[in-house]
Design a protein that fits this description.
The complex is a heterodimer of chains A (75) and B (199).
Chain A lengths: L4 H13 L7 H16 L9 H9 L1 H15 L1
Chain B lengths: L6 H8 L4 H22 L10 H14 L10 H22 L4 H8 L5 H4 L6 H14 L2 H11 L4 H8 L3 H21 L13
Helix pairs in contact in B: 2-3, 2-4, 3-4, 5-8, 7-10, 8-10, 9-10
Classes of the chains: A mainly alpha (75), B mainly alpha (199).
């Protein structure tokens, strides 16, 4: 069994988004609330939170958690 | 979610003792119950009977992490993010606990299979280079983590089966992606060239 097309696509996408310095999932968790609050009111993301945006583009699990946080906050 | 306390009051109260703390804990528990129920309701693997345990485990982690709250969001937003991490980690664990990491990676292999992927002419050379680099430039651990993640296996479960932690795993995965990126660049593919859609 080899990788499916969506898996190959995912592999290329995450490799393309890879940066020399990245934050890990625990750092993301501590800051994702601020990122979500800014996004939900349509404010620009400051430079200090760009690493969160990049992490969310790489990490499926943190992205899923972020999307669920937005669902909870919208309520 | 409504929240009458400001952030400093939340932190001070939760770090104190007595009836005010108990009231704050009770309010936070109620907010997390509502937040988690709202966030998780679309998941097919979630049932209401799991909520109390999720909230209890979340409260433990939140109280342990109070010194990591830096007042840059509402306290309840920060706490809800932790509760969602706790809940999803448990749900993912249940989903993947019977899947063997070793078998998953062994079954994936590193050879392009025309029958399964049938990539178009544009993406074929990049995909072949990617498989070659995965096979030759990555360590066995890097290969394992990268392929298991691409297959969607839960990071906590990959970490458990490798005797590691989620953060150590992220470092391995980052190193693997960097090597793969450098390998593709060395093979003559720029990031722009592999910004393609595999059809």
């Amino acid at each position: 069994m080899s990788l499916s097309r969506p898996e190959l696509q995912k592999m290329l996408d995450v490799v393309r988004a890879t940066q020399p310095i990245e934050i890990d999932c625990d750092v993301c968790l501590m800051q994702v609330g601020e990122f979500a609050e800014l996004n939900l009111v349509g404010k620009p993301i400051p430079e200090g939170l760009k690493a969160i945006e990049q992490h969310l583009s790489i990490c499926d699990e943190c992205r899923e958690e972020y999307e669920m946080l937005c669902v909870a906050l919208r309520k | 979610m409504t929240d009458d306390r400001d952030n400093n009051v939340w932190i001070e109260t939760l770090q104190s003792e007595g009836p005010l703390r108990e009231a704050a804990l009770s309010d936070l528990r109620g907010m997390l119950l509502i937040g988690l129920k709202t966030a998780l309701k679309s998941r097919s693997d979630f049932v209401d009977s799991l909520l109390d345990d999720f909230v209890q485990d979340s409260l433990v982690r939140i109280l342990r992490s109070l010194n990591q709250f830096h007042n840059r969001s509402r306290f309840v937003t920060w706490a809800t993010a932790i509760a969602i991490r706790v809940a999803l980690t448990e749900l993912r664990k249940r989903r993947w606990r019977d899947v063997s990491l070793e078998k998953l990676v062994a079954d994936t292999g590193f050879e392009p299979s025309a029958a399964e992927t049938s990539p178009d002419r544009e993406s074929q050379p990049i995909i072949e280079a990617m498989y070659r680099i995965i096979g030759s430039d990555l360590t066995e651990k890097q290969r394992t983590v990268l392929l298991a993640e691409i297959k969607g296996m839960a990071q906590e479960e990959i970490a458990r089966q490798m005797g590691s932690s989620r953060n150590a795993l992220y470092k391995l995965s980052h190193d693997a992606r960097q090597r793969l990126k450098q390998g593709l660049e060395k093979a003559g593919f720029t990031a722009q060239e592999y910004a393609i859609t595999i059809s």
